[in-house]
Amino acid sequence: METLDKRLMIPLYFQLARLLREQISSGELAAGAQVPSERELMERYSLSRNTVRQALDMLVREGLVARDHGRGTYVSKISSSYHYMLDTFYENRDLLRRAGFTPTVQHLSTEKVIAPELARIALRLEKGDEVVRHEMVFFADGRPAMYTLNFLPTSYSGGFDLSSGKEGFLQYLDRASGVKVEHILVDISPVEAVTEIAAVFQCPTGSPVLLFQETFMDETQTIPIGLGLNYFNREVLSFRLFARRG
Amino acid sequence: METLDKRLMIPLYFQLARLLREQISSGELAAGAQVPSERELMERYSLSRNTVRQALDMLVREGLVARDHGRGTYVSKISSSYHYMLDTFYENRDLLRRAGFTPTVQHLSTEKVIAPELARIALRLEKGDEVVRHEMVFFADGRPAMYTLNFLPTSYSGGFDLSSGKEGFLQYLDRASGVKVEHILVDISPVEAVTEIAAVFQCPTGSPVLLFQETFMDETQTIPIGLGLNYFNREVLSFRLFARRG
DNA sequence: CAGTGGTCTAGACCACTGT
DNA sequence: CAGTGGTCTAGACCACTGG
After folding, report:
1. Which residues of A touch B182 (CB under 8 A)?
2. Quick one: pLDDT band at residue A1, thresholds 50, 70, 90?
């Protein structure tokens, strides 16, 4: 009935999930409201029930909706938007897209510097070795969401032109390193916003900020490809993950 | 062919997932080994492909296996080797043990209170409903590591005597709720230490502290069993997780 | 090319909730 | 009771990988 691009390259369940996500973040489906039933969605978009369920599964995992057996599916009262699941990672701009924002990127600087200790350890370098430092800010609907410092070995070749906006950082990293970044190791800590970050986030100096120290790894998890320090503005983004009992 | 209790109360996809999980942890399916193909599993256990995929979906989300389009499904090299990380969770005291500390626990209070909004939403309660609040502090080698507030429905029976130290909180929760806590949903955020927490952690008021807001879930991930607010002293503990490229 | 995972359909029966 | 989500089947075609 409505607008799903049948036989486009984007899977139907993904299109439906995106559509519902938009309706939720726009308020068309308000917090606490009942989502149309699975059979209703089947009918409306000419999909099979399995495909509808596959779309709803995504939203359930993202915490946007909750199913209630025999009653229906409801929009979660927490977090209509900004939550993001941590078991998979994406280009920062794609992360923002998945959280329902329109991302923009500002490339602040690219400099060759002596590797700070954090980077030296993560990238297994010697004291005094140089690294290339990329400094970026990501905005979500125009609001400052992430401040990022990436440290890469100088051996990586190939220019990185983020200002063009065509290539994401991970794509660049794949190309420059010759290895596909398949995993990241994330160390999570809360830090005080230093003046530089406070200025970017427009929050008081010393405010709590979430720091993800990310080591980019190849699929064998043996080669550190790069180090990223990602500072998140808690006013804009928050994080969520599932864990199993050990 | 093999042993799945058709027409028992446990879903087939769940039984298959459990069976494969056991084969992985026992080493029968070694790290890096190829999992039998979906069509092979169909045949072997007389299941439809969708059901097999539903089982594998669980394992993929848990990080135990990874799919490779056109090649096959493989046991992850990561999660089989143990990083004491965030993809699995433990009793708080066991978490400290795994981090190499000797844990001690101090039970500060147990009170019946009107559910604060966070707890009301997480536990799906009505305004004005009461909950039981347990307040605890965990020490690592004598240093204050975690400050914990747990909110449970009043319907749970059974006394909770943590001071004895014999029973962990999750064990108590299993017993009192009658449901096994199998998953938690964790919301991660950085917050300022309020005076109470600052006093416990012996750090300045307003220092950045890591907050894990944990919703305890049963194995179907539908029933919220309890809510825990865990504040971590960053001087003592930090967290790490693996994520896969999406 | 055969074998793999990725997507999708069109049914079916069940368990649960509310009226 | 009708309507909901939970599970399951038996097909189908596609895109990707490797030999």
Report:
1. 244-245
2. very low
